[in-house]
Amino acid sequence: MRKLRLMFVITALMWVFGVVTLPLIPDPAPIHWNAAGEVDGFGSPWLVAFLPPACATLIAVLAPLLPRIDPRGRGYVAFAPTYALIMNSLILFFAALHLMTVGVAIGWPISVPRLLSVSAALLIVVLGNELGRVTPNHFVGIRTPWTLADSEVWRITHRVGARLFVVAGLVAALFSLVVPEEWLWATSVPLIVVPALATIPYSYLVWRRLHRTDLSQGENQ
To answer: In this predicted model, what pLDDT tens digit does every residue of 81-93 receive, in sequence order?
Structure first.
């Protein structure tokens, strides 16, 4: 997939950034922040410099591999541009995380919790905007027993899930910009997680509605 090339370029730049900034990162370096936005964990500068590029590398390796090992691999052709956008967006998210953590370690005046919350919310918006274009597969999308069992359940669930993701992401991004840092996780995380989890029982309800006749016949036998 040619459109996946961007992720390899970004990943390579992340490794270069890590190598260049490693001598500037203090030891120990901040690696964790509490709900109030205060640093409450420290670790090796190597972790700060190279963990995000390592995660990005894993995604970059898996991205072209997943369609090849998925039993429904041919279906990826139908949403190839969407698949590339999703994977590239994930890499960009890790690149943003890399910039934040290295930046704050070397003294940039930034708020990692706030920027991380905004970045995660915008990632959810991007994923939601593309979710409706994803066709049935085993690795990308809302994969429940009911969506995987019925293409119509998959279609309906992803259509509704896409709207939930976009709205939740936009609201979470807004909250992330205005609420105090000590309330960031208590507001933005539920706004993102709850709509995502809601798609699981929703897919079951859709499956049950579409297969009501079959279920009734099975109970009568």
So the answer is: 999 999 999 999 9
SS3 of 95-156: the string is HHHHHHHHHHHCCCCCCHHHHHHHHHHHHHHHHHHHHCCCCCCCCCCCCCHHHHHCHHHHHH
At how many degrees (to 10) do helices 212-220 and 184-210 cross? 60
Whether 97 contacts 116, CB under 8 Å: yes
Residue 149: which of 214, 220, 218 has the closest Cα?
A: 214
Whether omega for the bond prior to residue 28 falls within 30 degrees of 0, making it cis, is: yes
Domain spans of the chain, in order of start: 1-108, 111-211
In tens, the pLDDT along 6-19 reads: 899 999 999 999 99
pLDDT digits (tens, 9 = 90+) for 105-114: 998 888 888 8
pTM above 0.90, yes or no: no
**Structure confidence at residue 112 (pLDDT):** 83
Q: Tally Cβ neighbours within 10 Å of residue 88.
A: 21
Query: What's the mean per-residue pLDDT of the chain?
Result: 88
CA geometry: angle at 43 spanning 89 and 39, to 5°? Answer: 75
